[in-house]
Amino acid sequence: MIETKKSISPMTTSPPNSPSSTTGRHFPLSITNHVGFLTSSCPSLWPSYFNPRPADILLVTNPKLGTTWLKALAFATLHRHTYSLSNHPLLTTTPHDCVPFLETIFNHRTIPQLNIFASPTIFTTHLPLSLLPKSVLSCRIVYLCRDPKDTNVSLWSFTETMSISLSGATNRNEGFEFNEAFQLFSQGIAPFGPFWDHELGYWNGSLRRPEKVLFLRYEKMMEDPVNHLRRLAEFMGCPFSTEEERDGVMEDLVGLCSFDKLSNLEVNKGAVNIDGETSKAAVAPDYYFRKGKVGDWVNHLSIEMAEKLDAIIDNYYIDSRDQEKQLLYS
Known about the structure:
The chain is α/β, with parallel strands linked by helices. The protein has 14 helices and 4 strands. The chain is globular and about 50 Å long. Its EC number is 2.8.2.27.
């Protein structure tokens, strides 16, 4: 079991919540001047004001790719000596409140004072590496990729739910049609740019600076979460001791952060928090939990659609990227 040494809140202050910009029915996000890029963030502020410390950790994913799970695992691992399993913040606080998005922090009129947080602090972003300031390489970056077919389905489901919620529609048929979502995704039009550019940017970064960029694959983590948690802890600078491994601490944390556990907590259901008050979050917590399954795309994509996405991957990772393609998708 995990011992409790002291009790502190997961954040010095609660991360800000800001309503998403709504410029369209299908993508409840504002459009910035970047090819295939739809987001409400303000990356232009980052080079001057985001200066992470060497011990800080930046989690990076494309949207709807396991972000919530990765946040929970990283937070629970880093703070395992602070909280007990029976009194853990993840039982009463969403992973997105425990680990803030930089897009949210910098989407306000005031400049955040990030250095007030104890080091190491975990942050999260969906931004591609090309839009991050060079200062991010002073900290540790953990990147999680996923089969784009499953990513496409999960992103569509989330966007459709958001679209219906924001438009006040009462019928799911009034939402975002999957065929349209697939066409946009396969053309590289996604919230944070083409998935192939997003992944290759961080993959190349992990090759150049393996001590600074850890590249993980969702499917492999699902197959063997305990060993991947060990790898994550080592990279984050807080490896599990022999005693912790013997006592099953890794298994305990994997259980705490599992999809079934998190999705069934009251704090992660609906738009009402544990105090019975209406949440001020732009997105209801349960929107972030769909299935978490590997290979669910077979229930949504036709054979032709699957072949089209596979062909995009084959064509994009050609030439000198053959080894990268094998490592990413085999």
